[in-house]
Amino acid sequence: MAALLVGACSTTPSTxxxxxxxxxxxxxxxxxxxxxxxxxxxxxxxxxxxxxxPDQLEAGQVLRVVPPGGxxxxxxxxxxxxxxxxxxxxxxxxxxxxxxxxxxxxxxxADWSWPTQGAVxxxxxxxxxxxxxxxxxxxxxxxxxxxxxVAATETMRGYGSVIMVDHGGSYMSIYTNVGTVGVKQGQRxxxxxxxxxxxxxxxxxxxxxxxxxxxxxxxxxxxxxxxx
Length: 228
Prior knowledge:
By secondary structure, the chain is mainly β. Helix content is 10%, strand content 28%. The protein is built from three helices and twelve strands. A hairpin with a 3-residue loop joins β6 and β7 (160-168). α2 crosses α3. The radius of gyration is 22 Å and the shape is globular.
C-alpha cells in the first residue's frame, strides 16, 4: 500500500508497459484467470515467471504469457544506422500471432473418474453451458476426477465457491456451486480425493457445475470421462 501511495503522489509516475508476449497484472487478477485469458495453464505461467507463491501477484507486475522464445522480447539490439545518420535497416517483422488453442481428439481417460455420481441434468453446448450440471444433494461429496494440483480455490460472482485442479498436459477441471471446501491452493490431490461438498440448493435443486478445459478452452466432459 505504501508503495502504491508513493507512486500515486509522484509527479512522473511510471506505467508498466507489456511487450510482445507479456501481460501487465491488473487489480483483482489471479494466476488462473491470467492463464485462462491467454490459453495457458497456471503451471506454465508460474514456471515462465519463476512464481513460487501464486498469491503474491501485484498490480503492475509484468508477466510472460508465451513460452520463452515464443515472442520477440524487449531490449533487442537497435538497427544499424548509416553514416549519413539515417536508418537503412529493414522494418521489423511483425510478431506472428499465436494460433487459437487446438483441442486434441477427444478420448476417454482411464485415469479419470466422475466427480460425483448424480445424473447429468444439463449438458455441454459450448455457449450457455460450458460444462455439465450434475444433480445431487447438498452436502454430497465432490471428488477430484484425477491426480493433479489445486490451482485455485476462490469465490466468483454467479458461481459461488470454485475449485480448479490442474491435471497437467494443459488440462484443468473446474468445480463450482460447491459448499464446504476441503483443499487449499497448491495442494496435490489424487483421483477420487474429496475436494468439497455440493453447496445449498439453488432454484429448488442442489447440483454441481463441472467443467474440463484444455488450454483454457471448454470441452465436453462426457467425451473424456468414463461412459455413464
